[in-house]
Amino acid sequence: MSRLGLRLAACLLNISEARRKYIVENIAEAALLDKNGQKHPEVTVLNIFSDQDYNRSVITIAASVDKLGLAESLILHVPGCSVFLFGEADLPEKRSLVQRRKQLGWFTRRDFSALEPDLGAAPARRCGLTACFRAL
């Protein structure tokens, strides 16, 4: 397929961290790597926005649609990362982020270690990373 015919998708990674810049940068770097640690030529970080007051960051990534194995790559390169799928990635249910958080008891739960993530390790506490993919 020519570069003009490349189908793109955008991914917004929402991270419960902003004050420790190196953590945000490590996650952004990990998003660029495949499972073998090699940089994907068709993946790029477009923007990193961090809010120090709320200790939250958003990383905007663009990739070809066939390179969206991002969640699998992140759990390999970011130790302790938990992934809970929602939207188009949550097959067959395709639950929204709000529906998924309610189902998990995300805002009322005290023991997060009992949760079973779709990928990665069980979370130690309510923090972490969520992602939303959209075809462009």
TrEMBL record:
Q: What residue stretches are annotated with the Formiminotransferase N-terminal subdomain domain?
A: 7-133
Provenance organism? Propithecus coquereli (Coquerel's sifaka)
Q: Which InterPro entries match?
A: Formiminotransferase_N (IPR012886), Formiminotransferase_N_sf (IPR037064), FormiminoTrfase_cat_dom_sf (IPR022384), FTCD (IPR051623)
Pfam (any one): FTCD_N
UniProt-listed SUPFAM superfamilies: Formiminotransferase domain of formiminotransferase-cyclodeaminase (SSF55116)
Q: Which gene encodes it?
A: FTCDNL1
The source's domain of life comes to Eukaryota
Its name, as the record gives it, is Formiminotransferase cyclodeaminase N-terminal like
Which SMART domains does the annotation name?
FTCD_N
A GO MF annotation of the entry reads: transferase activity
